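Structure tokens please, single chain.
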Amino acid sequence: MIQALGSEARTQQLAQLDGWQTVEGRDAIQRKLSFADFNEAFGFMTRVAIKAQQMDHHPEWSNVYNKVEIVLSTHEANGLTERDIELARFIDSITG
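Here you go.
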């Protein structure tokens, strides 16, 4: 069974991520990104979708034109887990 991160592990992991913030009222993290245009935003989402499918771990997200908002949390653990951190790191790596 997947376990949610404890507070010390969560603090350490979040410190290593780029631009991620906690979600008020939830055990989750979020990041808001802006791109040059819709095509670039959708290309980014496609890359994340491929990685998420490989991990069998899918984000909550929305897209309006060149903006993408992502929320990561693991429903099975009812909170933030290593799977969320791994996907966040991947997202950080492709947004440079």
